[in-house]
């Protein structure tokens, strides 16, 4: 690695990620490590210029106050102790905090602001080539931001040694499978295996109304399809994953409980026959997007909205039927198009449609109808733990309503969900 590094040691703080991001915002690379890092582990880190001892409310573990290892104090590196208990050695004011951090990073540590995407990509290409050599690597390419950026990075590093498998389970948004094929097979010349598993998934989901059962069926079937395709290939030694830094942080540390489990952090089988390749595992989400842009991926892919793993399967409420699933897909496409035309794309965190499993009476062409409603949802959030509802102009809502009721078969009403989180959740299932 060519970049200088500041190490953040977790001594019970709940703001490790925030400090790491603030250091990176200064143009200097940073990583979070456990408080008891060994001398060997510390010396193995490249270009370390200083260490931040990041204390906080979880500093007492099993009745004992934890401290950095002896190796840290003996390292000879500049140290800065931070305590997030509201004490005066860590200013609450953002400008004062950044000034203190900048003084430590640049004046005391003499770090160079050389953390940028060009350097990151050059480093990762070198590391990937060193890890994979002349062997082959396999990637499940969902079309989401993380897997797409991993694919682009691996293509740059090892080209045709990468095989991507894109499984179309029928629960993607309008145009997404076609975009994956167009970008990776035709524009980036990747080895791409496209699997049309729509009927297979929808047959498995027939009559299943419970959202957790739907999730489990979709997840399990995806693994089966991917494994079947992998068995058809020969000489695959590596499995690439779109693991990113928040996945690792949220999966827990020595001083903090996990926020949520991530399938790609500690959830893989112990008898996994592949060696993992995870080139994005030290990037935050906004950095992943910046990496995708630098690699030449289209904006529609780089800035793709957050999308649940089960896809539209949890927005077609209750038991999934093909006609209601198409109503979700078509109405979602209209909503996204109109938000784009209104200049709201990129300004609203997430927006989508939901079609519930009930009907209501309506009128079309002077005749009675008995059709579904479409529910619109548009929310803003920083951390997805809480969310506010976007104040969409009423004229825009009227335009979207007119288009959906005119263009989407089987729909006669459009509703707007005004519920924040809490009490609602972002998704309906």
Automatic annotation (TrEMBL):
This is GMP synthase (glutamine-hydrolyzing). ATP binds at residues 142-148. It is an enzyme of class 6 (ligase). It comes from Flavonifractor hominis. Pathway: Purine metabolism; GMP biosynthesis; GMP from XMP (L-Gln route): step 1/1. Its EC number is 6.3.5.2. The lineage of its organism: Bacteria, Bacillati, Bacillota, Clostridia, Eubacteriales. The gene is guaA. The keyword Metal-binding does not apply. GO terms for molecular function: GMP synthase (glutamine-hydrolyzing) activity. SUPFAM superfamilies: Adenine nucleotide alpha hydrolases-like, Class I glutamine amidotransferase-like, GMP synthetase C-terminal dimerisation domain. Residues 115-304 form the GMPS ATP-PPase domain. Pfam families: GATase, GMP_synt_C, NAD_synthase. Catalyzes the synthesis of GMP from XMP. Keywords: ATP-binding, Glutamine amidotransferase, GMP biosynthesis, Ligase, Nucleotide-binding, Purine biosynthesis.
């Amino acid at each position: 690695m060519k970049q200088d590094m500041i190490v953040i040691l977790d001594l019970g703080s709940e703001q490790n990620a925030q400090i790491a991001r603030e250091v990176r915002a200064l143009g200097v690379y940073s990583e979070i490590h456990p408080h008891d890092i060994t001398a060997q582990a510390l010396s193995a880190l490249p270009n370390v210029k200083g260490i931040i001892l990041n204390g906080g409310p979880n500093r007492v573990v099993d009745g004992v106050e934890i401290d950095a290892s002896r190796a840290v104090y003996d390292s000879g590196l500049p140290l800065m102790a931070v305590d997030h208990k509201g004490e005066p050695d860590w200013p609450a004011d953002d400008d004062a905090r950044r000034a203190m951090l900048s003084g430590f990073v640049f004046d005391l540590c003499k770090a160079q602001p050389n953390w940028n995407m060009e350097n990151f990509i050059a480093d990762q290409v070198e590391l990937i080539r060193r890890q994979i050599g002349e062997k082959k690597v396999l990637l499940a390419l969902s079309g989401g931001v993380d897997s797409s950026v991993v694919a682009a990075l691996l293509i740059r590093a090892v080209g045709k040694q990468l095989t991507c498998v894109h499984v179309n389970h029928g629960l993607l948004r309008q145009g997404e499978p076609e975009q994956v094929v167009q970008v990776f097979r035709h524009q980036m010349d990747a080895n791409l295996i496209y699997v049309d598993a729509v009927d297979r998934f929808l047959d498995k989901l027939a009559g299943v109304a419970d959202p957790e059962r739907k999730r489990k069926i979709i997840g399990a079937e995806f693994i089966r399809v991917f494994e079947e395709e992998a068995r058809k290939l020969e000489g695959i030694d590596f499995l690439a994953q779109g693991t990113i830094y928040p996945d690792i942080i949220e999966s827990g540390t020595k001083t903090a409980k996990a926020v949520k489990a991530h399938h790609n952090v500690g959830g893989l089988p112990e008898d996994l026959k592949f060696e993992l390749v995870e080139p994005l595992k030290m990037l935050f989400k906004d950095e992943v997007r910046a990496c995708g842009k630098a690699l030449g991926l289209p904006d529609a892919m780089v800035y793709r909205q957050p999308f649940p793993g089960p896809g539209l399967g949890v927005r077609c409420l209750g038991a999934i039927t093909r006609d209601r699933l198409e109503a979700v897909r078509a109405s979602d496409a209209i909503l996204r198009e109109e938000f784009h035309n209104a200049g709201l794309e990129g300004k609203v965190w997430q927006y989508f449609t939901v079609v519930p499993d009930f009907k209501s009476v309506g009128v079309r062409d002077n005749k009675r109808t008995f059709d579904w409603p479409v529910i619109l949802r548009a929310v803003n959030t920083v951390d997805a733990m809480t969310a506010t509802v976007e104040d969409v102009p009423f004229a825009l809502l009227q335009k979207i309503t007119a288009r959906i009721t005119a263009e989407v078969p089987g729909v006669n009403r459009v509703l707007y969900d005004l519920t924040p989180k809490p009490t609602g959740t972002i998704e309906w299932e």
